[in-house]
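Example (one chain per record):
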Amino acid sequence: MLRGVARQLPISFSDIIFYDAVSGERRESWVGSAITACRVSTGDAEVDSKKARQDKAQQEQRETREPPAQTFSRWQRELSSPKRSRFAVVFHLDKLIAYRQTGYIEDERQTLLWMEKVIENVTPNHRLVVALQDAVVPIELYTNSPKTYLLLIPMPDEADKIAYLKHRLGENEHFELIADLTDALFLRDLNNIANEIQSHQNLSTCEVRQLVKVNKVLHQRARGLLEAIEYRETQ
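Predicted structure:
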């Protein structure tokens, strides 16, 4: 979805960058409206092989990736450069900088400091999106900051989900079923389900239920892993 937002902006971005506490940094290079880092494949064996390579690469990246403060110090330079335009996204900032009444620990203070510098120095040819779910936005990131805008994105209701599915898939007999089964999921999660449905034609009701169930489990595991990381790092 954010890729679509980036394409709609009146800026020709050369890169789109995603960052979260679990996967670290992921980059895609764009040429025009194409994503050159991704290749569409149709064979099941090729998809499985590609998934295995991605899992291995992400595991290696998790083992060797740089600390968040170091990443954002590099972003501060990149997002203030006039040479290339970048669209950068940070997911689950609350897992990197946890709000506490007692204040931040040292690693969090360093991460927050560099995030403030990124926002302060970002130039108009770049965009930075920071996404949080059910969390408090650190006031340091938006107080007295004319470059920062806070947007509340509510949980989509059934009508929102059906409209999004129609936009993604055209006509499908399972729209209402999917919308009913995907409570507590955002459109980003619904996008993964739509991708699965697009790659499997003529699914039965039972198959759709199973597909949604698997995606909800993956969503819950991802949330649980992030929460486990946050808990472990605060001990």
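Caption: The first strand starts at residue 15 and ends at 20.
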